[in-house]
Design brief:
This protein has 432 residues and is of the alpha/beta class. It is built from 21 helices and twelve strands. It binds S-adenosylmethionine.
Length: 432
Amino acid sequence: MTPAARLSAAIEVLADIEARRRPASDALKDWGLGHRFAGSGDRSAIAGLVYDVLRRRASAAHVMGEASPRALLLGGIRLARNWSVARFDDLCSGARFAPEPLTDAERAALEHPSLADAPPHVAGDYPEWLDAQLAEAFGEGRVEEAQALAQRAPVDLRVNTLKTTREKAAAELAHFGVTPTARAPLGLRIVIGEDARAPAVQAEPAFQKGWIEVQDEGSQLAAQLAAADPDMQVVDLCAGAGGKTLALAAAMDNRGQIFATDTDKRRLAPIFDRLTRAGVRNAQVLAPRGKDDEPLAKLAGRADLVVVDAPCTGSGTWRRNPDAKWRMRPNSLDDRLADQAAVLARAARLVKQGGRIAYITCSFLPAENDGQIERFLAGNPGFRLIPPARVAEDAGLADLAAFTSIRGQGLQLSPRRTGTDGFFVALLRRVE
Ligand SMILES: C[S@@+](CC[C@H](N)C(=O)[O-])C[C@H]1O[C@@H](n2cnc3c(N)ncnc32)[C@H](O)[C@@H]1O
């Protein structure tokens, strides 16, 4: 496909997303199935265009003065990739498979795309109903924080110290131009190029050998902040596909014991292969056998550390899932708040006296973070908050103390603050 035909295809996919209010991934998949002549390079280039536009959906509509799929594509790419008007003129030629030529109004809008008079939720590209929560989390800096969340994310890798060292992995992956992550001691970063194509990391021998895992630097830091020791009994209560379990196992040097579980067996399914590939020997996966089964019943009051990588809105990962931010609704936030309270209550039953709960979300919404911790502490007088600065210091990440969350209950990472996805981490100690 020509670059111009890819633009037309991206407009078609955006039209499908808008008309049927469906996830971008579904619309892209269907487009691929209906256009079998398109190769993988075409499909990933089209996906790159669509996701770049979705990151800037509101500001694109603002600069173009309308929200048609074509306007979103033109405005979104202008803002996200800084293309010149001449480049658009070249591609939008009206030739076969190419978009129609620019109108005078479109050209004028693309020449001077200004967000000077845009309200915060438009300049920052987020749903208007979340404005109060962004203001609470980030104060005056909310537009800049949201703009950082509207950038394309890099691909971060965590080097598995059960198999290799960061230096060896970096040498093996030099062709990706990897650089060490700034804060996570085992991370390697790959910056995505202008075409937005993600590197095929999974096809690399280093990946097949279990040397590396794909894991955002913020997620790596969250696991490190939990400060798991080699002699601990650790529960990973919301283990999902096992990203945190793998990081904890390496931090514990394959010693002690990790019990990994999740209420959703399907989400847990990939963990088995991942543990094998990574050479993890200190993790047991305990899948629930039925709706009311508690596979961890025998551990009640015995765990040194319970990691709660809580189900959340995922607002901190908007860089990677830009259509999730537009699809988010107030009732989905309410559902997640109820889930989080339930998982915290479960964690409280498992932890021993003197043990800790590490509460983690990939969100910046205070209701899911500080608010959830405040409610838990009010209802569980036997627990105390470990001061966030102490948490950072104990994990060997003292610099993170500067990113204490708005109401002081945890550490709040974000693309603007720490160059990572948005993560919240709070630690609670059971004292009685
Ligand atoms: C953020 S994801 C976990 C990601 C995973 N820890 C990782 O690092 O790859 C949250 C998980 O919590 C699970 N979950 C939801 N409610 C739960 C509950 N009450 N108890 C345990 N897990 C729960 C979901 O199925 C989901 O897999």
